[in-house]
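Entry 12.
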Amino acid sequence: MLVSCGFFSTSYDIAKGTVVATYKTAKIATDITVGTCKVAYKIGKYTFEVVMAPLDWPMTHDIESIDGMSPKEAIAQGRVKNSPYVVKGKRYVPMTIDEALKYSETGLASWYGRETQRQKGGNMTANGEAFDPKKPTAAHKYLPLPMHVRVKNLDNGRSMIVRVNDRGPFVGSRIIDLSSGAAKQLGFYQKGLARVKIETVQLD
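Predicted 3D structure (tokens):
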């Protein structure tokens, strides 16, 4: 694991009893370049790079509150992993770690990221990371953040591991929102939607 940061720290467990990374959150002006804190690690053949976003970046989704406080305050205090949150007046209660480790579901996947490319600066995910649509990440309404899942496209057999670091999708019956980069790897970027199977990755 590679870690290079400044500023103050908050610790997050990536999965139960496995990798623990110390992240730093930059509480500075919006003209700071992405890269204030970078954590790099590998799971099998997959390499993940995590960059924390400045707290004044806009969020990818309009989350009204997390754990009874403003989203940015909850992020700064490290209270986002599986804390209840509110979107458009609806309260969502994420899974416990034990529940998440047994999670498996089949349903409809979509992708997001195009809307953030039109904005200046960057966007923050629901756990405070800088959103990069090219990276293998995803949004899920109920999994703890962050969590790793294997996503298999049931239409073409392609599969990959992604890092769940955001909340969503909040549209219809979709069960996961993948980054545009992940959608391209799974072969449904042009189609927009795909039937997928999701399973939590057990880290040793």
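Annotation: Residues 2-200 form a domain with the Barwin-like endoglucanases fold (CATH 2.40.40.10). The mean pLDDT is 82.
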